[in-house]
Amino acid sequence: MNAPSTIPVGYSRTLRLREMLTSNRLEFLMEAHNGISARIAREAGFKAIWGSGLSISAQFGVRDNNEASWTQVVDNLEFMADASDLPILLDGDTGYGNFNNVRRLVKKLEQHGIAGVCIEDKQFPKTNSFINGEAQPLADIDEFCGKIKAGKDSQSDPNFSIVAHVEALIAGWGMEEALKRAEAYRQAGADAILIHSKLSKPDEILTFAREWAGRGSLVIVPTKYYSTPTDVFRQAGISCVIWANHLIHGAVSAMQAIAKEIHDSETLVNVEDRTSRRSTKSSICRTRTSTRPPRTSICPPRTKSAARSCWPRAVARAWKPSRRIVRRSCCRSRASRC
Fold first, then answer.
1. What secondary structure does DSSP assign to 60-82, as a single string?
2. Is 142 a known active-site residue?
3. Count of beta carbons in the 10 Å neighbourhood of residue 266
4. How many Å separate Cα 167 from the centre of its chain?
């Protein structure tokens, strides 16, 4: 089913994500890592986006180890939010530091229109879960609960979501520890629990879901146990499934193949028909979904009196699509004030 082409007034991104997390039916989030992938996810019909830490790091050309700063990640998210009106759940790693970092992160995400953040109970700087997972230390439960509480206290939108990512199964700490941590995070205010596993079968996840018994929303990332039928997740009471990094993998594979073909053949003849140049120009790069006005007008006023009379009209005209109208600024009639 395609995502709705128009969003009802007042139906915010945060509210849409919260409804997905609490829905009685299984929901899906698709990974995206920049503006064009966010637009592609929307055009495919997905209802929400997973701002994957691995994928965003990869498109920056750095490791999934907090080498990209959180401000660089937030700047990238701004392009994603402008390119697609879908709610975005950021993979916020460990929160980029202590509870004070989480507090500031939540405020900045809200300012950029991001619907939620998922933080994991590992230590900063983080390492990808599937790299020597059992050797990675976990955060103290009380400390991590403090991060969750700080984030919830800092949000201004009551529908902004914080998802607690439990790494106990990945780290080899066992099912009992995973359930203990999940319950502590739920009581600390987490809006959902993301439970992760590195096994190729969903046994750990299904056991956790059974023991969890619907105490709160449950999110999974079936990267390793991808062959499991989706109906199994529905029957287990899973709330959301995240397809975590497949767009970045697909993009990299396609670019590698095309780059090698052009290098080896020294011609574009063999690749031109395989690229989507026409569709890219017409359906993705031509339009934008953001309704936010430009940050500056064409001619910023120099005085307060000029600001009252000149700024609004300049902004309104600059935002219209016609190039002819954009050039017709208020300065023509109020040159002395601008």
1. HTS-TTT-S-HHHHHHHHHHHHH
2. no
3. 7
4. 20
Q: Assess whether the previous peptide bond of 125 is cis (omega < 30° from 0).
A: yes
Helical H segments across the chain, by residue range: 13-21, 35-44, 53-60, 70-83, 99-111, 141-154, 175-188, 203-212, 230-235, 246-265, 277-279, 304-319, 323-327
CA 216 to chain centre: 21
Of these residues, 64, 82, 93, 191, which one is catalytic?
64
For CATH 3.20.20.60, the residue range(s) in the chain are 13-251
- pLDDT digits over 284-338, tens only? 555 455 444 444 433 444 444 444 444 444 434 444 444 443 344 444 444 444 3
What's this model's pTM, rounded to 2 decimal places? 0.79
Pairing of strands 161-166, 240-243: unpaired
- The helix/strand/coil state of 112 is coil
Six-digit token string for 102 = 């989480």
Q: Which CATH class is domain 13-251?
A: alpha beta
Q: Report residue 98 as tokens.
A: 């202590």
Interhelix angle 53-60/70-83, rounded to 10 degrees, is 100
DSSP letter for each residue of 280-330: IIIIISS-----PPPSS-SS--SSHHHHHHHHHHHHHHHHSS-HHHHH--G
Contacting residues for 203 by C-beta, under 8 A, at least 6 apart: none
Strands 116-120 and 161-166: parallel
Q: Is 110 left (phi over 0), alpha (psi -120 to 50) or beta?
A: alpha
Q: What is the DSSP letter of 236?
A: T
Cβ burial 43-57 (10 Å sphere, 16+ → b, else e): eeebbbbbbbbbbbb
